[in-house]
Design goal:
InterPro entries: C-type_lectin-like (IPR001304), C-type_lectin-like/link_sf (IPR016186), C-type_lectin/snaclec_domain (IPR050111), C-type_lectin_CS (IPR018378), CTDL_fold (IPR016187). This protein is of the alpha+beta class. Helices cover 29% and strands 22% of the residues. The protein has 5 helices and 10 strands; from the N terminus they run αββαβαβββββαββα. The strands form 3 sheets. The protein has a 4-stranded antiparallel β-sheet with strand order 1-2-8-3, sandwiched between helices. One calcium ion (CA) binds next to β7. The site of one calcium ion has 7 residues, from loops.
Length: 222
């Protein structure tokens, strides 16, 4: 196990030095120029930063801890990204131990969302999961079973967690927003209204809360 974690940490360090790329090139990228743009303790993958949180918490308390760091529990959008998460956990935890990520179907059973609001466009469940074993299982844990995939489980269990946040808005975009605010022009698309740095739209169609959220995610809002 020690050897594995040493290898994973070496791979992680190299990926951060050269810029993490997808699984096709191996998690260790060979020819990328961009450096790690995340702050200390965070690991970059594409446009986001990831951090392993060793302290075991329930899912909601893990999410709240991520929010306190300006992040959310991690969402996952490709197998390459999932492998990267596994490397981060494997390096920091010393093995592929069960770890909270941001998926939940607490609002409506079997309708999954990511807590960071991104599209639920990739899944990697263990065979037979999600299964609501023994009743409701609304929270998602990674590294489950022999193949280290996903399970739905009761949110009151305690596990370590992975937080993720975007670094897109820390530099150029904030400056751009400040200039726009100074010029006082509406940066929102047609039909949207700006307040501060965000755009708002009233949607007349009545829907349940989860379907309202889903139709949102399926539209072009991102
Ligand atoms: Ca469930
Ligand atoms: Ca389950």
């Amino acid at each position: 196990m020690l050897t594995i974690s040493l290898l994973l940490c070496a791979a992680l360090a190299l990926s951060q030095a050269t810029g993490a790329k997808g699984a096709e090139e191996g998690v260790v990228a060979t020819a990328a120029e961009n450096r790690n743009q995340c702050s200390t303790g965070w690991f970059q993958y594409e446009s986001r930063c990831f951090m392993f949180i060793e302290t075991a918490r329930t899912w909601p308390l893990a999410e709240r801890h991520c929010v306190s760091l300006g992040a959310n529990l991690a969402s996952v959008h490709s197998s390459a990204e999932y492998q990267f998460l596994q490397v981060v956990v494997g390096c920091k935890a010393g093995g592929f131990s069960p770890t909270w990520v941001g998926g939940y179907d607490a609002v409506q059973d079997r309708l999954w969302f990511w807590s960071d609001g991104s599209k639920f466009d990739y899944q990697n469940w263990k065979k037979g999961e999600p299964n609501n074993s023994g009743g409701r299982e609304p929270c998602m844990v990674m590294n489950w079973g022999d193949e280290y995939r996903w399970n739905d489980i009761s949110c009151g269990n305690s596990f370590p967690s992975v937080c993720s946040k975007s670094f897109c808005c820390s530099g150029a975009k904030v400056a751009e927003e400040a200039v726009a605010a100074a010029e006082n022009r509406n940066q929102c698309p047609t039909g949207w209204f700006q307040f501060g740095s965000r755009c708002f739209m009233f949607v007349e169609t009545a829907r349940t809360w989860p379907l309202a959220e889903v139709s949102w995610l399926l539209s072009t809002v991102n």
